[in-house]
Write a structure and sequence with these properties.
Blueprint (H helix, E strand, L loop, with lengths): L16 H13 L4 H15 L4 H14 L5 H27 L2 H6 L1 E4 L1 H9 L3 E6 L5 H8 L5 E5 L5 H11 L3 E6 L3 H9 L3 E5 L9 E6 L2 E7 L1 H9 L1 E10 L6 E5 L11 H18 L25
Parallel strand pairs: 1-9, 2-5, 2-8, 3-4
Antiparallel strand pairs: 6-7, 8-9
Helix pairs in contact: 2-4, 3-4, 4-7, 4-8
């Protein structure tokens, strides 16, 4: 469990100076009014498309697979808006890491926090069942204004970026747990604490079952939510965050704990979970992370890739 960002003199090595210069520049950008930030972010996103063809193709293919009945022109418009929103998410992240609590509170709305408190008061841990919305970093920072939780994260391979993400995320979390450390997650839930859990990405074949996701009949889906809820004696609460339509604030909404979860089987829970994920994504499809190769793992190794 990580409870403090560890700074060392090695991070000041000349090979990192250019990165630190960029960090300083982005820190200055947090001083801009939010609406101006978002206009710049949308511009960055549009300008990036010709230079990020692989990511564009992945997002376009995901939309084709998930929404085959949607008109091609409508999907293409959704794709362009998604890249604009991805550019804006740069500011969502740096704001989440560096804005003061006072500024955060001027741009946030929280709904459903009473469900979290009621669950904790009953002596049970809370699993916030989230999806990879583009403003998710800001969602965690907003949540931390009233009840800091424990973040589950993937340690960064670059030492400077690892220091920055840990320092930034600990502004809204008590601690961070590497995503494969199930034992620490269970201990945190039994404390009780709040942890974040996402099941909307492809983590490979070893920990997955293949079930429907939107129009894709066999999407690799993890079943860790069932295990966490059982071992951690915790409740699962759907969590959603979005940047408001006026680009001048954020709203998070926490739903009541799921009834009868865990259910009859891991598969039944995963199918139920994918239904919740689909519903949350559909609330604001332009702000979802469509850039991820969600369907890279196929049921059989011999099955052709859906991205070729």
């Amino acid at each position: 469990m990580v409870e403090k960002a560890q700074f060392s003199k090695q991070l000041l090595h000349p090979k990192y100076w250019l990165l630190w210069f960029g960090v300083g520049l982005t820190h200055l950008l947090t001083l801009l009014p939010m609406k101006l930030q978002m206009r710049l972010g949308a511009l960055f996103g549009r300008m990036a498309m010709p230079f990020a063809k692989s990511r564009v193709n992945t997002a376009r293919r995901n939309l084709e697979l998930c929404f085959p009945q949607m008109a091609a022109a409508e999907r293409e418009q959704l794709l362009k808006r998604n890249f604009e929103e991805t550019g804006k998410a740069i500011f969502d992240t740096i704001n989440a890491w560096w804005w003061s609590n006072n500024r955060i509170q001027k741009h946030m709305t929280i709904k459903g926090q009473e469900y979290v408190q009621q669950t904790l008061d009953a002596g049970q841990g809370v699993i916030l069942f989230a999806v990879h919305c583009l403003p998710l970093e800001m969602g965690a920072r907003i949540f931390g204004q009233f009840n800091p939780g424990v973040g589950v994260y993937r340690p960064h391979n670059h030492p400077v970026m690892e220091y920055l993400q840990v320092k930034g995320r600990l502004r809204s979390n008590k601690a961070l747990i590497p995503k494969r450390d199930l034992r620490q997650m269970v201990r945190s839930l039994r404390a009780p604490n709040v942890i974040w859990y996402t099941a909307d990405q492809d983590f490979g074949r070893s920990s997955a079952i293949f079930i429907p996701f939107f129009a894709v009949p066999n999407a690799a889906t993890i079943t860790g939510g069932t295990t966490l809820a059982k071992l951690g004696k915790a409740k699962v609460l759907p969590f959603f965050v979005e940047r408001n339509a006026d680009d001048n604030g954020y709203t998070i909404e926490i739903e009541p704990p799921l009834d009868n979860y865990p259910g009859e089987s891991e598969e039944a829970d995963a199918i139920r979970g994918n239904g919740i994920i689909e519903r949350l994504i559909s609330r604001n499809m332009t702000q979802y992370m469509w850039l991820h190769r969600r369907f890279k793992t196929r049921p059989e190794k011999s099955d052709p890739s859906l991205y070729k």
